[in-house]
TrEMBL record:
Domain spans labelled Neurotransmitter-gated ion-channel transmembrane: 244-340
Domain Neurotransmitter-gated ion-channel ligand-binding: residue ranges: 34-186
Transmembrane portions of the chain: 6-24, 239-260, 296-316
PROSITE patterns for the chain: NEUROTR_ION_CHANNEL
Location of the protein in the cell: Cell membrane; Membrane; Secreted
Broad class of where this protein is predominantly found: membrane
Name this protein carries in UniProt: Neurotransmitter-gated ion-channel ligand-binding domain-containing protein
SUPFAM superfamilies: Neurotransmitter-gated ion-channel transmembrane pore (SSF90112), Nicotinic receptor ligand binding domain-like (SSF63712)
Gene Ontology CC entries for this record: extracellular space; plasma membrane
Amino acid sequence: MKMSKFFWNFYLYFTFVWVIHVSSKCQDLFLIPSQYNKNRAPIPQNNTLIIDVDILVWAVTGVSAQKMQIQVDTYITFVWKDYRLNFLPNLNLDEENWCPIGSSKLDIWLPYVIFRNCIGCTPIELDTQKIDVLVHPKTQQFKILIRTLTNFACNIYLAKYPMDSQYCKIQLANYYETTNELEFRQIFPDSYKYVASNKSLAEYEIGPITPRNCSTPILDGQEHACVELNFIFIRQIGYYILTLYAPTFLIVVLSWMAFWIPAEPLQARITLGVTSLFTLATRLDQAQRNLPLVSYVKAIDVWLFVCIFLVFASLIELSFTSKFLQTEKTQVVPLNVASVNNLERQESNKKQPSQGAISLASSGSLRGEAPSNGPGVQTVDLRCAQGRIVWNWPQGALRLVLQLGSSGKEFRGCVQTNIIDDKSSTRVYIEGRGRLLLLMAPGDGRSTQTHRCFNSFHGQVALYVEAENRPMRFHKSILDFSYQLRKLTKRSRMDSAEECRPCLDQELLQFYCTSDFVLRASVISINHNSDLQLSEMKLRIIQPLRPSFFVGQEYVVYAPLHCQIASDDGEFVIFGTHFFNRPIVRCAPRVQEWQKLRRHAIRLKINQCLL
């Protein structure tokens, strides 16, 4: 233990003595003349003093966009030759190594250099206590090695933030001598030296670092030696995709869910839109918190404002929808199976409907009275194939949403007024795309007993029924209105002459089972009624097949006027259905053709019904 302690003491003593010895010898390499002025640069006669400069970037420790500065840890080396000193012959020193001159550095000229764009820094030459000055015995050159951790001003431009790249620089300059007297020469003019192990910061990736000569005139109008390093900091966008772009995009998509929410629950749609708007406003504030207050628009501002506008537009759409619904209706009364049963139970108990109520009578008709608080629009959902609506004291309008059951299939519907009061006529509109189309009205040139037909769109039709010329309160007024719906095929939807074509064999067999009446008859006469748009066929019944008729009875049936039915001799089998209490002909094959078809169907066992 004592031997080890003795050894270390001896080693430290020997090293200290050797350093003092070498330092003293390095000081003895040159003599300082009496007329030597350490405040003036050693400029050669008729020449320029060249100082070799090498800047080694050890690390970039920070980039602050808010403070608009960067922090760089650098090693700076200056090498020059002082021709005014008198160097002595070789003193048995290693000529290939630099040696420190010790306290003599206070008596010789040292370069006065500063960082041009540093923040809160002092000229490097003034801090002589922390500078090591070396001399080379062979080349008689002096060298200074300095390490600094300095903040530099950087012009941060954020127009493309967060997809931006920032360009910063550090400038090392001399302000005492002009470029005619002193110049900087870069040791590595075509490259830079960057020895940091990690070339990526938390937010930036460091691009190429390039040197450049920055000698330019300054306040005194003269050029001074200057060298600079240019940095490129490429912002990494992955953080912003995960924390900004993806969340705000999902928030906007979430606000669009309000379009799939029914318009009636207004509070749910408002809550969804306002919550999305507040969330985006919070993200906008957070995005600006760590940035300087600039007056130009940034890329992130454009993104967030577009997101806010889309959410705001959905709220505006909500307000227009709400206003439209308020003007369109004042009350919605859906009639499903449960409500129909309940209304029928009320009718069976002989309870009178209350003021403004809508009820369904046992006969399948809809009856009601107008509300006492004034005119409005009442919406009624109807899914029956046919029905009748009776409205006492009609005021305002009814909006009838017609559907053929719950299948959503396309259908053809027809409407007709049953009873028209002297002072209250029926006016019917069909709802089109953004407007109402008049379907039936008094004085339109057609008989009031004529039905008006229409095709469905996406399985439903909305009709507006209102009373024209509202009567005085003491005058009783009744609106009586009927409708019928029939399933529509693609062929009949596109061709208006479909109902005029001869029936197929399969259709005849089917109509024999499903028709309201089937008669074997002969045609007496045909009369075309342009007011009703129907052709009246007077028949003499030869054999009633269904229901019961008297043989020899005369019976009137109808067919569409545009079919242009002509009178013909012979016997026919008439298949028909009742449409608005009128017997309408479906098919009328000759008796011989029908008997042949029926025998063939019985033989092949394809007869669909036995009557």
